């Protein structure tokens, strides 16, 4: 799930951001998603985005930040890979910046535990770190940074 929590401006700001984000998705034509208005447990206005998919299918071998493993068979799918997600996060942050929106944005991907931060307040995330290691069987293991303070713009 992809969540945008509007910290200031109430439902009017939320609706303004939601409508413009829907328009940008259509205009850019790369991503498709369902956007829903909501209110969280703390009575903050939210936009829930799910599922995010590519408009056009492309070869897909999994959600990873590094080069594809050699010899892997790739099926065509509309799932996003690492670089696609970075572009989608950029689109969301550009929309929020346009309206000078104070918002917390995070997703909850299967590859990490907890919240994977995309934005905190007025600060968009600009660095996306993933470290790679190998387990005792030689399998690749990726360690995702969920969003430390040094990864957000000033």
Show the helix and strand layout.
Elements lengths: L1 E5 L3 H19 L2 E9 L5 E10 L3 E3 L14 E3 L4 H17 L4 E5 L8 E5 L2 E2 L5 E5 L5 E5 L10
Antiparallel strand pairs: 1-3, 1-6, 2-3, 4-5, 6-7, 7-8, 9-10
Helix pairs in contact: 1-2
Describe the structure.
With 154 residues, this protein is of the alpha+beta class. It has one domain (2-151). It has helices spanning 10-28, 82-98; strands at 2-6, 31-39, 45-54, 58-60, 75-77, 103-107, 116-120, 123-124, 130-134, 140-144. Strands 2-3-1-6-7-8 form a 6-stranded antiparallel sheet, covered by helices on one side. Strands 4-5 form a two-stranded antiparallel sheet. A hairpin with a 5-residue loop joins strand 9 and strand 10. It is globular.
Characteristics of this structure?
single chain; 154 residues; alpha+beta; 2 helices; 10 strands
Short synopsis of the structure:
The chain is of the alpha+beta class.
